Amino acid sequence: MDAQATILVVDDSPENLQVLSAVLKGQYKVKVALNGERALALAQAEPNPDLILLDVMMPGMDGFEVTRRIKNNPATILIPVILVTALDSRQERMQGIAAGADDFLNKPIDRLQLLTRLATVARLRRVSRELDDAETVLESLARSIEAKDATTGSHCDRLIEEAVHFGECLGLLPQGI
Fold first, then answer.
1. pTM here?
2. Could you give the 3-state DSSP secondary structure of residue 47?
């Protein structure tokens, strides 16, 4: 991620937050949360974080539920979530995948592995943002062309509706967006 990227680190242990923050501070903007409720609030705050490192085992709302809520919210659905866990069973990993986690890191965290995974997820996030920018440009061009031809009559809006419906059918979007 670029130097401007923001990572939200969520863990109920102040010591773990301090260690992860120290590892990331030179390269990223770091925000921290001690619980799931605070994590959700920070994830929705503008601007959204570029990535969330999320502990699984927390009192109250665990990391699986936080991930589920992030991935079910249209405002935060595209934020990559990396679950950080001491759990290593297949069942817990499957539960994390079902919740929408993008990756996993085991505790204790290996610094090199952490930074490498962040770089990989950052590349994917950057490409996603570039695609969003390209989409905006293409939509502006299409609307300009549409405005010049009175016979098209909201053609772009109909295409958008059909594309959203297609995405829902493929399971790429929650129903009703």
1. 0.73
2. coil
Render 86-144 in DSSP notation, one character per residue.
Answer: S---HHHHHHHHHHT--EEEESSPPHHHHHHHHHHHHHHHHHHHHHHHHHHHHHHHHHH
Per the DSSP assignment, residues forming a β-bridge with 54 are 10, 83
CA distances 35 to 72, 84, 149, 171, Å, are: 19, 14, 54, 30
Packed helices 111-148 and 155-169: angle between N→C axes, nearest 10 degrees: 150
Show the tokens assigned to 72.
């079910």
Integer Cα distance of 153 and 158 in angstroms: 9
Please tell me the predicted confidence (pLDDT) of residue 156.
73
Cα distances from 8 to residues 25, 38, 80, 86, 147, in angstroms, run: 12, 11, 10, 19, 42
CA angle 109, 115, 121 (to 5 degrees): 110
pLDDT for the residue 123 = 75
How far is the C-alpha of 121 from the C-alpha of 101, rounded, in Å?
12
Give the residue with greater pLDDT, 137 vs 115: 115
